[in-house]
Amino acid sequence: MSADLQAPKGTFDTLPPASAQFLAVRDTLTAPLRRAGYGYVETPVFEDTAVFARGVGESTDVVSKEMYTFDDRGGRSLTLRPELTAGLMRAFIEHRLYGGALPVKLWSVGSAFRYERPQAGRYRHFTQVDCEAFGIDDPALDAEVVALAVQGFRDLGLTDFELLLTSLGDATCRPQYRELLVDFLAKLDLDEDTRRRAEINPLRVLDDKRPEVQAQLDDAPLMVDHLSDSTQAHYDAVREHLSDLGVTWTEAPKLVRGLDYYTKTTFEVVHSGLGAQSAIGGGGRYDGLSAALGGPDVSGIGYAVGVDRTLLAVQAEGLDVAAYAGVQAFVVPLGAEAKKLAVRLVGQLRQAGISADTVYGDRGLKGAMKAADRSGATHAVVLGDRDLAEGVAQLKDLRTQEQTAVPLGELFDQVRATVTR
Length: 421
Ligand code: HAM
Description:
Helix content: 25-40%
CATH architecture of the largest domain: 2-Layer Sandwich
Bound molecules: histidyl-adenosine monophosphate
Structural class: alpha+beta
Distance between the termini: 45 Å
Strand content: 15-25%
CATH class of the largest domain: Alpha Beta
CATH topology of the largest domain: BirA Bifunctional Protein, domain 2
């Protein structure tokens, strides 16, 4: 039978046993945030389209080409979130969290959607772990956030990654730098498309991967050489704190992120085992985001890590982050009377916090024992009619095949004691 309905292009299903790795990666990436006092937030997977148009920026590919935007039945323009930051900022403003103690430190994890050209590591539906610290502009907070991103990768055992760091300046120095860059780009031999891109956001040309463009950019003016005194001092302080936190980085003066809201500290983490889609996480400070969404003029800093890409990095380094756990005990009923007992025993074990399963449908002894082996259980409880008539069940160690008869009255306690030993 061939399935005529398949997961949409650019999406995929994560099935057991591989899904255990996905969960382990996701949870390991969030653990440092929980340890650092960040609070968990859920926001809708769709928002008013304006949240992203104004937050992420109309000139970005993400907003102009990649959004899943639709009108709902009430005629509202909604968009599936292409990232989590703008929605979290919308919530921060809507619930006036800025009126309380600052910074407001939040994290979230969930689906994001971008209509991108699918390839290895680049999907139309993917999962991000997101961290944001809203409301305070303090270089020590920048360093904390960057260090948390790095910690998640370290905790997974990853080593082949690199932290790229730069400062994108702010309103006091970026406009002047932008003019310098526009003048410089105007003298280059660029095609029509690139020229148009340069008009909308000249910084993005710095990130052009084509060798014929890169060759002309050797002498391009760099933001880091034109920082105002205050942004320079901010960047210096961030780097000092990062050193104190034991984080190493590579200066990346041509780093340009795909979202428009960044100012000052900006970073990306790239992994060498992933080919073209090498960014496993990225983030930075965003001075204007709150105001762009109608909030007070407060700053923030955060990052997002791609769980799917991090899982690819884990696999590329051959790390074993999660063996498929399966269940602890598997109950095999043989006959109608045994079935009732099996259902009850599985229920009791689960209530006691022990993972247990049984067979459903008529599988016969052979099929049931195969299911027990596949379940990952260390022990099977075999309930045969003849044994039951004698008031016992067989408790079988599936690793050694050793079998002991256990009186039914002691069965629950014995199974519990055995599998938790
Ligand atoms: P971003 O760099 O666009 O930043 O995405 C963060 C990470 O999400 C990327 O490094 C990558 O691992 C993953 N990712 C992005 N697009 C895809 C895709 N199509 N398929 C698979 N993985 C993908 C942001 O989203 C910002 N909101 C980060 C941030 C938070 N900045 C400040 N706060």
